[in-house]
Design brief:
single chain, mainly alpha
Length: about 150
């Protein structure tokens, strides 16, 4: 199911990008978020919170140093990874199943925050939400119809 979710997200992200010239938080992000919504909604909420913190930290960093291009991308993703890893270390004992198989989840907040910095934030959030919802609907329908295994 994970491969199908990521593939759906890639397909819908590509369609969104070609139609609107907006990146919905990166190409793999909507598929991963749709999988997260299917498996555990709490994790999706946590990713949203870490994304907001990453975006705010990036704006503060941009006021103190010159960030553009590859340096901006690396700084934003690293900030997201550090915030997500900190949250993991703090919450792993209380919620061990929340982080069971979440390797990609350490990168996703940084990818979304990077697009929030590069594009208009409202448009980025709308495109990310729309593409994620599309992938989620297809995944949930596939599970309900029995075409995909339920998690």
């Amino acid at each position: 199911m994970a491969a199908v979710g990521i593939a759906l997200g890639l397909l819908f992200s590509l369609i969104c990008y070609l139609a609107t010239n907006l990146s919905p938080g990166g190409m793999i992000t909507p598929g991963w978020l749709a999988l997260t919504l299917v498996e555990d909604v709490r994790l999706a909420g946590m990713v949203a919170g870490v994304t907001l913190l990453t975006y705010l930290c990036t704006r503060v960093m941009q006021n103190t140093m010159i960030l553009y291009g590859k340096r901006l991308f690396a700084a934003v993703v690293m900030c997201g990874v550090l915030l997500q890893a900190t949250l993991y270390l703090v919450l792993q004992n209380q919620f061990p199943t929340l982080f069971a198989h979440q390797t990609l989840g350490f990168i996703v907040p940084g990818l979304i925050a990077y697009q929030l910095v590069r594009q208009p934030p409202r448009a980025t959030l709308m495109s990310t939400a729309t593409v994620t919802l599309g992938a989620y609907v297809v995944l949930a329908a596939g599970m309900l119809l029995g075409a995909l295994p339920s998690s």
